[in-house]
Design a protein that fits this description.
Blueprint (H helix, E strand, L loop, with lengths): L2 H13 L2 H8 L3 H15 L4 E3 L4 E3 L1 H27 L5 E7 L8 H11 L3 E7 L2 H9 L5 E7 L8 E14 L10 E2 L8 E4 L5 H12 L5 E5 L3 H9 L5 E4 L10 E5 L4 E8 L6 H9 L3
Protein name: LysR family transcriptional regulator
Organism: Nesterenkonia aethiopica
Keywords: DNA-binding, Transcription, Transcription regulation
């Protein structure tokens, strides 16, 4: 068994296709298939059930994956640590981000990282704040940028506050409130809303604000992205409450200050117990 064989198994498990996995690994499919077959022969089990149209992990394959991922990550970490000891920072920094990051210019930050440490690669994953924190705790992400309701902080990870922002109401230009500059939550309570999924941190801020005001509302549409939420507002299907810092995305829409509206805090989170050299290099580039 060697690391390359394990990487091939992980690629097939991710893509559910030998063809796509070979493409992702920059190798011909016959070579990838041969290496996986050799590994299965060595282990004495089949890792994949495959036909001409389907590829699925077997029970043995499912059992193989967690330790396989750890083995590859440990090898990459060992190489990064050795390079760091020699004065060169390399390896992969795995970053989880919410769909509405505003406190950090992420592309500019990654450009600075590449200029300072060209051997560092970056893996980006978008998700919910709670999922990102869980992934950091389990060592599957190095750094996260989170959005939480005011007064909340991530637990079980190192963190610091990046920025605070108030939500604004976003409505279509011909909405009944489009001539107003300010509004109270109670004036929005009868509207149909587009918002993030129920129980998600991105939704919690607004749900808490309505609960504290002893108001209820109808969330007619749920989306994991602000783009779709704003698209629904443009189609006059709903209104939305979103961070004011997203103002560049509000073109063609009308925004109103919400006097008793929700507040969001963006946090930087990371594994402070076992920070990789690549992650530490990125953290150093972030302003205090």
């Amino acid at each position: 068994m060697d690391l390359q064989q394990i990487r091939y198994v992980l690629a097939v498990a991710e893509h559910r296709s030998f063809t796509r996995a070979a493409r992702a690994c920059f190798v011909v499919q016959s070579a990838l298939s041969h290496q996986i077959a050799a590994l299965e022969k060595e282990l004495g089990v089949r890792l994949f059930a495959r036909s001409s149209r389907r590829v699925e992990l077997t029970a043995s394959g499912e059992a193989f994956l967690p330790a396989a991922r750890q083995a590859v990550e440990a090898a990459e970490r060992a190489a990064a640590e050795a390079a760091s000891a020699a004065g060169e920072i390399r390896g992969t920094v795995r970053i989880g981000i919410i769909p509405t990051v505003t406190a950090v210019d992420l592309p500019a930050l990654l450009r600075r990282l590449h200029e300072a440490h060209p051997e560092v690669t970056v893996s980006l994953r978008m998700g919910r704040s709670d999922e990102i924190v869980t992934e950091i705790r389990h060592g599957r992400l190095d750094i996260g940028i989170l959005g939480l309701a005011a007064g909340q902080s991530p637990t079980g990870v190192s963190s610091r506050e990046l920025a605070r922002d108030r939500h604004v109401a976003v409505v279509a230009p011909d909405h009944r409130l489009a001539r107003r500059r300010r509004v109270r939550l109670e004036e929005l309570a009868d509207e149909r809303f587009a918002d993030f999924p129920a129980d998600s941190p991105g939704r919690t801020q607004t749900d808490l604000a309505f609960a504290e005001a002893r108001l209820t509302r109808e969330v007619a549409f749920e989306s994991t992205t602000a783009d779709l939420i704003l698209g629904l507002v443009r189609q006059r299907l709903a209104v939305a409450l979103l961070p004011s810092a997203l103002d560049d995305e509000f073109q063609g829409l009308h925004t109103l200050d919400v006097m008793d509206g929700p507040t969001r805090t963006e946090h930087l989170a990371w594994d402070g117990f076992n920070t990789s050299p690549a992650a530490a290099a990125l953290l150093e580039l972030l302003p205090e």
